[in-house]
Every structure is written in C-alpha cells, then in structure tokens.
Amino acid sequence: MTDVWDGLTMDKKSAAPDSYLLEMESFAHTLERHGIPLQHGLTDTLQVNVGRLCDLSCCHCHQEAGPGCSEVMDRQTMDAIIAYARRNQFKVIDITGGAPELVPHIDYLVENLAQLSPRILFRTNLTAMLGRRDWLPQLLKRHQVALVASLPSLNERQVVSQRGEGVLEKSFAMLKHLNEIGYGMEGSGLTLDLVANSAGAFLPASQVQQQMKFRQDLLRKQGIVFNDLLLLANVPLGRFRHWLERSGNLRGYMEKLTKSFNPAIIPGLMCRSQVAVSWDGYVYDCDFNLATGQWHGEARCHVSRMPGVPEPGTSIATGVHCYACTAGAGSSCGGAIAA
C-alpha cells in the first residue's frame, strides 16, 4: 500500500512537494508499522457530492467550494446515481457539496433517493437556503430527510474569520426557521444535527463537552434546539492546507496529527463502510480522496459501470491527509469516532 501525495503537498500550480512532508512517515507506512490494513468492510453508506458550487468560501473547506465554482452535478449523473442506489440497498445516503441547495434539480435527486434508502442525510451550510430556495426545507421535511448543518462556532468573530460577515446571524435565522417547521424538536422525527470545525491548527475539543455548551448557549441566547453536535478535525487539504502554508503552521499541524495517531480508530473510519461519488459520477473511497482526485487501482470507475459496492477486504487509497481522521478521538462525517 502506498500513499498518494497529490492534493496535500502539490496542487496544479506547484512545481514540487513540500520537503518536510516528503520526510515525514506516510500514512501507509504508519499502518504497516502497526500491522493494520485499511480495507473496505461492509459498505452500507452512499455519499453523493453534488458539486463545489457554494454561496460561501469557508477557510477550512477541503473542496475549495465557492460561488465561482462550476463543478455541479447534472441530471444525467443524478440518474446514474439513482440507478446505482436502486441496484444496492444502502442504509444511508448522504448528500453533500459545496452547497447542495444551489444545485439545479436537487429536488429531483432528493425525491428519488428518498424512495431507495431508510435514511437520507442532507448537509447544509444554512445560509444557502435562506432567501434562495424557500421551498427546500418543506421538501426535505416531507421526505423525513435528516439535516446536518454546519455551524463552526457560536463566536461571531470566529465565524467571520472562517465564513465571512453576517453568516452567523443568517445561520441563526435559518436554524430558527427549521425549528419552527419541526426540525430538532423532540418527538418530531426530524433530525437536525450541527457540525463544527476547529478554528485553527489544533484538534477538536471533547465532543460531549462542546455539545453541552452549544446546547445551553443556543437555547439560552437564541431559543434554538438541535439533536447532536458533530465535531470534525480540519483536514489539511484545499483552503485549510493553503492557510497552514501561509501561516507557517503546516509542519506543526502535521506533527500534531501524526503524534496523535490512534490505531484504535481504524475500524470505525467512514471510508471502510461507504462509497463516495463525485459530481461527475466517479467513485472514490471518501470525500477527502475525492478532493485529491485519488483512487485505489489504475483507473477510476464511473458509477454507471459499478454494479455493486466494494468487496470487503478491498484496499482503500490513503494519503497523509488520513492522519486527520485518525488523530485523537478520530473524525468522520459523523463526528468523533471514539467517545
């Protein structure tokens, strides 16, 4: 097993990889040293990245999504994904981006996928629905779609630095509207989870403690309720990687991740139980490998040519960005892996 360095040490404009990153131990070698293979288990989750188009340009975004991005899933690719989901019985289908709210025909994708899986997740940055697609929350409610809403902090200065002016106020407004239609309310059956990222080059705090703080502060100050808080480690890709380089934090952050490697996290990694599909229909092990454009094997596979899910025991492509998912309590699209 070997690591692919593209996306972390190099980009399309770079001539050579960062020398320190070439000197550090690769993730593949770390796995070998611990005698732990990284392989697919039973795949029960389909993650669909519908594109990089977004109304925000968050500084921690590994996809470098933003208003100027043209990568958006078309109707033909949606049909291929719907057909793939029909061929396989996924327990969970996870729709992400970018901002999925802004993608044309997103209602078509949601309505069709909702018939094919008992649990549909829809990842929202909250602001993309506000004043743009007012019909979308009701559509998501009608299909009992669980919302996973990004809210990196309750501190206005921190949110401004990560996401821009006025974003926190708009996020609160959208959360209040979602509560009004039942999301996050006890007994409604409408799940509203929040997702928070660290503000800098450090690992997330205790998810349990942060959830208590978010719950108390949001209820007391804004009258907002939610189900669970998911904490994610910032992955050294995209805009966050560029910030690490500009600020001189790249080496320190990577050392922190590698020293915090937790082998007990490996069995719970999301890449072991999911398959990710990009806006152009190609299949990857996870959204981070999608961001780097790396896959296991010699050729990418389009979802239209993929009859089933990866066989258990199939190797998973790795890179040094994998250290972010395996540091400390671990990090996945579902938050911390270990309690």
Brief summary of the model shown:
With 339 residues, the chain is an alpha/beta fold.
Overall description:
This protein is α/β, with parallel strands linked by helices and 339 residues long. It has one domain (42-242, 269-311): Alpha-Beta Barrel (TIM Barrel), CATH 3.20.20.70. It has helices at residues 19-23, 27-34, 75-87, 106-113, 136-142, 156-163, 167-180, 207-222, 238-247, 250-259, 287-292, and strands at residues 45-49, 92-96, 119-124, 146-150, 192-197, 229-232, 274-277, 283-284. Helix 3 runs parallel beside helix 4 (106-113). Mean pLDDT is 91; it is low at 1-17.
Reconstruct the topology from this structure:
Elements: H1 19-23, H2 27-34, E1 45-49, H3 75-87, E2 92-96, H4 106-113, E3 119-124, H5 136-142, E4 146-150, H6 156-163, H7 167-180, E5 192-197, H8 207-222, E6 229-232, H9 238-247, H10 250-259, E7 274-277, E8 283-284, H11 287-292
Parallel strand pairs: 1-2, 1-7, 2-3, 3-4, 4-5, 5-6
Antiparallel strand pairs: 7-8
